[in-house]
Amino acid sequence: MDRIIIRGGNRLSGRLPVSGAKNAALTLMPCALLTDEPVTLRNLPRLADVDGFGHLLNQLGASTAIEGTRPEEFGRVMTIRTGRLTSTEAPYDIVRKMRASILVLGPILARAGEARVSLPGGCAIGNRPIDLHLKALEAIGAQIELAAGYVKASAPGGRLSGGRYRFPVVSVGATENVVMAAVTAKGSSIIENAAREPEIVDLCNLLVAMGARIAGIGTETLEIEGVDRLHGATYAVMPDRIEAGSYACAAAITGGTLDLVGVKADDMRATIDALVEAGVVVTEQKDGLRIAGPDRLGPLTLSTAPYPGFATDMQAQFMAMLCMADGASVLTETIFENRYMHVPELARMGADILVQGRTAVVKGVSKLVGAPVMATDLRASMSLIIAGLVADGETSVARVYHLDRGYERLEEKLQAVGADIERVSDG
Ligand code: EPZ
Description:
The chain is α/β, with parallel strands linked by helices and about 425 residues long. The protein folds into 2 domains: about 1-20 and about 240-425, Enolpyruvate transferase domain (UDP-n-acetylglucosamine1-carboxyvinyl-transferase, Chain, Alpha-beta prism); about 20-235, Alpha-beta prism (UDP-n-acetylglucosamine1-carboxyvinyl-transferase, Chain). The protein is built from 14 helices and 24 strands. It starts with a strand and ends with a strand. The relative contact order is 0.16. The structure holds ligand EPZ. Ligand EPZ binds next to helix 1, helix 5, helix 6 and helix 12.
């Protein structure tokens, strides 16, 4: 198992390239199942979850060719070809390791008229049900059966009919699944209270490039006119707004100045607004954002919400940053029921945080002290890295495989902007 060792105290400074978005990549890749023509994705981040998804696509009969990028380059070009599906099943041993595998359900069902996908099970941040995925697919004509831990889906007559569905709560993954299933349905579909995250816009843009007919992209109502077939396309994955926001918190907590290259300000307005309110100077530049941390951060009151609200995926990173603010901050996590796993680890470093239900009160302290800590989930592990950058002494983060799921070459990027950070292997 690898660990990451950080010796805190350095102000970050320099240019940091932002990679392609993990949560866009994981919904763009399954689109290649919808056509027998090649789909080429550029700016694909080099991440464990992307590799895992590639293996899943291979299991289904798709080829995934990585094309000419030098190892020192960030991101990759992958061409996915699904001449035909050799399987319509996503097995438990794959799905349990990567929940996003559930995103092959809609595409397999649309392509083959049937699908058998393992229920993903829960994870560290919550039990993560998929009832909304299934209800939305039923609304556009799928027949769904749950048996022995699997979802068995079928389309009568081999093709989904299309239909209308209004989500009772916003769900990113369920919106992605039903959109990917609806684009080649016999008829039209209307999806209401759809998720509006930039990753959904990226998905719709790729599908349109493949010949899909989608109106209302970026709004909460998507109108999809089913087409008989989709063709291949070449598409660049959007930059990762959560990675960028994470490094912005790193710059802020160290009082440093970082140029985040490649990120789009419009994808992360709520994050920018929160940073500015905390006293961070954010300058929009033609190639990204300049983040200048103040000598002392101000406290914030934040509540996570679906886009365009403050992203739940930014909560842990902001909590780490606000441990050093001048006053008490109040964070409320409205999306997941157990997304405070980073709190006891931050407390080991001297943070003063009180959690009551969905709310955490973070009292700013004058310093954090490095300690051995444990990563528990992706964004929680990034909050420990952020805390380690400012802590006195050495912080050792174990189970960094959580980080490798969502942050491309993290220690290289941070070393390049002045962090004293290294990865060590415990064999
Ligand atoms: C996506 O997860 C992201 N993952 C998550 O990022 C992100 O935190 C989340 O959206 C919210 O923005 C990927 O895109 C791969 P949801 P998803 O469906 O789709 C409940 C990260 O750190 N719900 O929008 O699973 C659910 O329990 C990861 O990069 C149901 O009740 O999130 C949650 O409370 C973590 N039934 C809420 O809705 C369902 O069928 C929002 O979940 C589906 C969801």
